[in-house]
Amino acid sequence: MEEEQQPKDVSALTNNDSGPQEGIMPTTPSSAPTTPGKEAESQENPKLFDKDTAVVKIQAWWRGTLVRRSLLHAALSAWVIQGWWRLMLARAAEKRRQGLLDVFQQEEWAAVKLQSWVRMWRVRRCYCRVLSAVRVIQAHWRCHTCVSQGLIKGQYQATSGQLHLELEILQGSRPCYVSECIPLPIKQ
């Protein structure tokens, strides 16, 4: 009866699906309560104890391998997700940066355009003032020239022997009319 109990304990330890348990070791004859029949059994069949220990060790190694494999898979999956997330963050930051650059460029263009219009308006206003002053000066100069030097209007007619002139001289407030006929010397 005790022989059947020993393999049941080993199978109970090996069928444990909760993973490797480092603190649990199979019961050995030295740690089990000593009975005269058990000591005899372990001494008679030392290979059974070594076989059971080897089975437990293999199962613990395999469970550890499975756990390490699942942890490696989880770590690789987390690494892939982190890489993807960093890429998404970089793309979002680049999109935000590009948007800010576009807004900045539009604001700069608007400021330059506004400055250009203000400068153009100031230069045009200055030009219009100068043009108005030039027109005033020209009008006064022309009036002064006409009054001080007078204005001569006239027409002439040349015939075969004489030159007929009619002149109107405007000087001061009254016009003066001159009409003359000048004989032309003809060489023969």
TrEMBL record:
GO terms for molecular function: calmodulin binding. Keywords: Repeat. GO terms for biological process: positive regulation of acrosome reaction; positive regulation of flagellated sperm motility involved in capacitation. Residues 1-46 are annotated as: Disordered. This is IQ motif containing F1. The keyword Repeat applies. The lineage of its organism: Eukaryota, Metazoa, Chordata, Craniata, Vertebrata. The gene is LOC101602526. InterPro entries: IQ_motif_EF-hand-BS, IQCF, P-loop_NTPase. One of its GO terms (cellular component) is acrosomal vesicle. Residues 26-36 have a biased composition (Low complexity). The keyword Repeat applies. It comes from Jaculus jaculus. PANTHER family: IQ DOMAIN-CONTAINING PROTEIN F1, IQ MOTIF CONTAINING F. Signal peptide: none annotated.
